[in-house]
């Protein structure tokens, strides 16, 4: 099992390329299932979750030509004209909850699908009841048995029917499932409390290139007019705002001066605002973000909420920054029930953090000291990397397969900025 060995204390200097967004690439690979024509996705990030999704759609009989190049050279040509098995088996789904995104497209195009329930994961139970509620509203008959969702259309139906869908809470992949299914449904679909994360407008723009009729994407109300068929297209995956935010927090913590190519401030306003209040200098430049920081910053309280609020996927990373800042910060996690698992590991590095239910109270300390720690989930891993970059001495992070699910060559990019970090077996 790979580990990351970090010797802390180095500032970060230079330029780094932000990869395509994991949380856009995954639904966009599923959107390829909506057409029998070839789709080319470029700027595909080199991630374990992307490899899992490619395996999942190949498993359905889809033709996938993958070139795992760096940055925008990373591309895939997907041709779902050869799809024979509209299924997502447990062996693949259990490692990646986002496999549930195959349900909407398979049901919309083939009228039936068999998708394993995702099961829980480290950060929470991650139910899919809202996905089932919305697709049922479009006419799907979905039964859950032996750990699988078995979905089909009613007798005599050839397509889903447009519906008005209002979920009990904002759900990102739920919105994406409904958006994809509605493109081929008969009539109009209205998504009332749709998610507004930037990956959703990016998915919608791809679907529109395929011939879909969508408006309101990026707002909480999306309207879709169903069409009979969708065609192939070429689409470049939007830059990853969470990778961008992770690097911004790393530079803010270590001090330094870095240019993040392809990063977009407008996709990360809530985080950039907090970094500026903390004392970092964050400037938008042509096709990138310039971040500079020196000395100890001021701790920032925040609470995670749906976009455009402070993203839950940035909570652990900003907590690492708070742990070595001046003052005390109150961090409130409102989205997931168990997303403080990085805290115990940070305390091993010398952080002073008290958890009380959904709130973590972070008392900034002068310095952290290196230790052996264990990654527990994707964003927790990133927060331990940031903590290791500033801790005195050596930090060894175990179970970094969690990190590899969602970060493209993290240690290579950090080494390119001057960090003393290496992957060890
Ligand atoms: C997406 O997960 C992201 N994953 C997550 O990123 C991200 O943390 C999350 O959105 C919130 O922003 C992808 O896009 C692949 P939700 P998703 O449905 O869609 C509850 C990462 O680190 N809920 O928006 O699964 C749910 O339990 C990952 O990249 C239901 O109760 O999240 C949660 O409390 C982690 N029933 C809340 O809603 C449902 O049917 C928001 O979940 C669906 C969701």
List keywords for this structure.
binds ligand EPZ; 24 strands; four-stranded mixed β-sheet
Concise synopsis of the structure shown:
The protein has 425 residues and is α/β, with parallel strands linked by helices. It contains 14 helices and 24 strands.
Write the layout of secondary structure elements.
Elements: E1 3-7, E2 12-17, H1 22-31, E3 38-42, H2 48-59, E4 63-68, E5 74-79, E6 87-88, H3 90-93, H4 103-110, E7 112-116, H5 129-137, E8 141-145, E9 148-152, E10 164-165, H6 172-183, E11 188-191, H7 199-209, E12 213-215, E13 222-225, E14 234-236, H8 241-254, E15 256-261, H9 269-278, E16 281-285, E17 288-293, E18 302-303, H10 315-323, E19 328-332, H11 341-348, E20 352-356, E21 359-363, E22 372-374, H12 378-390, E23 394-398, H13 401-406, H14 410-416, E24 420-424
Helix pairs in contact: 1-2, 1-7, 4-6, 5-6, 6-7, 8-10, 8-12, 10-12, 11-12
The protein binds ligand EPZ.
